[in-house]
Amino acid sequence: MQLSATDHRIPLSDGNSIPVIGLGTFSEPSMTPKGACLTSVKIAIDMGYRHIDGAYVYRNEHEVGEAIREKIAEGKVCREDIFYCGKLWATKHDPEMVRPTLEKTLKVLQLDYVDLYIIEIPMAFKPGDEIYPKDENGRWLYHKTNLCATWEVECHPYFTQTKLLKFCQQHDIVLIAYSPLGTSRNPTWVNTSSPPLLKDPLLNSLGKKYNKTAAQVVLRFNIQRGVVVIPKSFNPERIKENFQIFDFSLTEEEISKIEALNKNVRFVEMLMWCDHPEYPFHEEY
């Protein structure tokens, strides 16, 4: 499949399609200036991004929606050009809570629909409006639901997900990679003992060969495998750089060498919830 900056959608099994690269908008509200997400989404759309990945729990969906609406008003895009993925948070898993929560997301976005709505994490917390519910002793308040869903997975050269990817391809399921460049080094939820992905010698040597960064090589690696990537950045230069992956290709031998970097290293471990009965990361994937 030929992918380009202007035509980079891949088909979904239901007849729809999804852009192979999107902008991640996760942020920690206390560390992110007001308006940073708004500006970043507008820059991304101007650069050619047509896939935006967000969530109500990120506390910035109002900025995402404003950016999309502004670009529609300018005539830069139509609503149908944009693929927006929203997420259901862990305190809203009970079936009767799903529709009202989605409707609240649409109200915040001020959009008529989202293109994809997925479960944020496959662990349920005490239902309610408190995002991170704890008891009077500071212990997490967990909940159990009958969960049957599909969600994004971590996928990058140190965690290639080869077995899962093969299964998905056999069943016409598109795999979406969060943290495709590794992730931040926040020790509260990230495995900081793992080596930084973008300092890997092979990735940097391939970057030099193609006059690209290690990040661009990593993103190209996954899209050539048919994996959708959603790198997060609020840095205008990196947003632009991450999108410039359609003007080169890796050889089959280079893909194999990158796959051989796999260490089964998961950066996003969320160890603060490892005692949850539904903690997912004991599993192979």
Compact description:
The protein contains 8 helices and 11 strands. It is α/β, with parallel strands linked by helices. The strands form 4 sheets. A 4-stranded parallel sheet has the order 3-4-5-6, with helices on one face. The protein has a 3-stranded parallel sheet with strand order 9-10-11, covered by helices on one side. It has a two-stranded antiparallel sheet with strand order 1-2.
List key phrases describing it.
single chain, 285 residues, alpha/beta, 4-stranded parallel β-sheet, 3-stranded parallel β-sheet, 8 helices, 11 strands, 31% helix, globular
The rounded distance between the terminal residues' Cα atoms is: 27 Å
Radius of gyration: 19 Å
Low-confidence stretches: none
Oligomerization category of the chains in this entry? single chain
Q: Tell me the structural class.
A: alpha/beta
How many runs of DSSP E, i.e. beta strands?
A: 11
The description of the largest β-sheet is: 4 strands, parallel
**What order do the SSEs take from the amino end to the carboxyl end, as H and E?**
EEEHEHEHEEEEHEHHEHH
**How much helix, percentage-wise, in residues?**
25-40%
Shape: globular
Q: What's the tally of helices?
A: 8
Beta-strand percentage range? 5-15%
